[in-house]
Design goal:
Blueprint lengths: L3 E7 L4 H11 L4 E6 L8 H4 L4 E4 L6 H11 L5 E6 L6 H11 L6 H8 L1 H10 L7 E4 L2 H11 L3 E5 L9 E3 L2 H14 L4 E5 L4 E10 L2 E11 L2 H6 L5 E5 L6 H16 L5 E9 L5 E7 L5 H11 L3 H11 L11 E7 L7 E5 L1 H8 L3 E5 L15 E7 L2 H14 L1 E4 L1
Parallel strand pairs: 1-2, 1-4, 2-3
Antiparallel strand pairs: 5-8, 6-7, 6-8, 9-10, 9-12, 10-11, 11-14, 12-13, 14-17, 15-18, 16-17
Bound molecules: adenosine-5'-triphosphate (ATP) and magnesium ion.
């Protein structure tokens, strides 16, 4: 029998790459790595787990990947899985899979996940609850779309990340003010969406052959757009201990339908959704990947699950373990500075440490003198954990309300 290969594609050996390789190696298959770094960059603990290695100059070029695979196939090995945890590689790898007739995320599905306009179009035709939208390419078209959809709106790139170039639109003047900037960041078109008012949450879903087999939801406090709009607003992500609130179960069902409609059959998706004041669920967007490090860390704190391990095991072996009982709620608060320049003072930290100290499991406190960051993850963070969701939420609210980081 020719050996079966699992091919993992990565730009570099960051910590997630190590986790992916270890998880893939925990299988009967040989692990092959295609990477932009030279073989000497392979960290020591990983070397023995990798049976073949191809150094390439561009992991996002399907031709480059296909040629690397052709070199590997001289031993007539069969490829079981070709994967990457880098979202930018999703469409290029799907092209290679299509050319080589490999299983995994199909090309049209990869495109649906990477282009928010395609995503919304699919959702509209499948009746998935989501914001009304228009895709526009010129400023006059943007103004017309805004008039047709009605204010307020959100204007954003079709493949944005981390809320970059994303704006709340309150007037037609705002459309004109922000259009060029968004267009420059998103040359294939600009999305204009009706603004959804409500709480914002994530729902991680795992599908196996189309069936929803695992889910977990986190609350964003406040919505990320509000965070980037306001300097000094701390951002929190809360993972409740209770896995199955009535509304999260309902949201997970809708999220599963949403990602199935995009073509996902077996995989993990990080879905973002809104809970409106009347309790209704509106799906915001979905990515075919494990969630951000913050959510993955919280899941691990709550019940010991490593989401990367869960995902890779699913892709490689087609197996998902039943979720262990969740013993804790967990939360991360990202501390953000107001003002510009460098941090001059950090106020009220001792009070938070005194009040919530027993809940703090890790912290990276902002340092005076460092430059104030504008991103949602700010200048530092505190991780809380407790068997009581309420205690975690109180610690988060206290930290958000009291800690003040001011600039020069
Ligand atoms: N239609 C909408 N209504 C209300 N808020 C929105 C809407 N679209 C986007 N937002 C806000 O803007 C933020 C960023 O938008 P979105 O989630 O689409 O992209 P992104 O977060 O930049 O991408 P990614 O989550 O892949 O990093 C959201 O988290 C949300 O707070
Ligand atoms: Mg988002």
């Amino acid at each position: 029998m020719p050996p079966s290969l699992v091919i993992y594609v990565t730009q570099s050996f960051d910590s997630d790459a190590g986790r992916c390789i270890r998880a893939a190696a925990d299988s009967p298959y040989r692990v092959v790595v295609v990477c932009e770094e030279p073989p000497r960059a392979i960290p020591d603990g990983l070397r023995d787990l990798i049976s073949a290695y191809e150094e390439v100059d561009d992991v996002f070029d399907p031709g480059v990947i296909a040629r690397a695979i052709a070199r590997l196939q001289t031993s007539r090995a069969s490829i079981r899985v070709l994967f990457s945890d880098d979202e930018r590689a999703q469409v290029p790898l799907a092209r290679v899979r299509a050319a080589l007739k490999l299983p995994g995320l199909p090309l049209d599905t990869a495109r649906n996940f990477r282009d928010k306009a395609l995503m919304k179009r699919v959702w509209k035709t499948h009746g998935i609850p989501c914001a009304d939208y228009r895709l526009v390419r010129t400023e006059p078209a943007a103004v017309n779309a805004a008039s047709a959809l009605g204010l307020p709106l959100v204007m954003k790139p079709i493949d944005g990340m981390r809320s970059a170039n994303t704006y709340r639109i309150r007037s037609l003047l705002d459309v004109r003010r922000y259009f060029d900037g968004v267009r420059a960041a998103s040359p294939r078109g600009v999305l204009i969406e009706q603004f959804v008012d409500g709480e914002e949450l994530s729902c991680e879903v795992v599908l196996h052959k189309g069936r929803l087999v695992w889910y977990s939801s986190t609350n964003y406090i406040p919505p990320p757009l509000k965070v980037v709009e306001r300097r000094g607003e701390h951002f929190a992500v809360v993972l409740p201990r209770e896995r199955q609130g009535a509304d999260t179960t309902r949201a997970a069902g809708i999220a599963a339908r949403a990602v199935r409609s995009l073509g996902l059959r077996t995989g993990m998706s990080h879905v973002e959704w809104f809970r409106r004041a009347d309790g209704s669920v509106v799906i915001s967007e979905a990515a075919a990947r494990v969630p951000s490090a913050a959510i993955s860390t919280l899941a691990h704190l709550a019940d010991g699950t490593h989401l990367i391990d869960l995902w890779v095991r699913l892709l490689v072996l087609g197996q998902v373990d039943a979720p262990p009982p969740r013993r804790f709620a967990a939360a991360a608060v990202f501390l953000r500075g107001s003002g510009r320049g460098r941090i001059r003072a950090v106020r009220a930290l001792p009070g938070v440490i005194e009040k919530s100290g027993p809940l703090i499991v890790a912290a990276d406190y902002p340092a005076v003198g460092t430059a104030i960051e504008r991103d949602w993850d700010g200048n530092g963070s505190i991780l809380f954990r407790s068997p009581s969701t309420r205690a975690v939420v109180e610690a988060v609210e206290h930290a958000r309300r009291t800690i003040r980081i001011t600039g020069w």
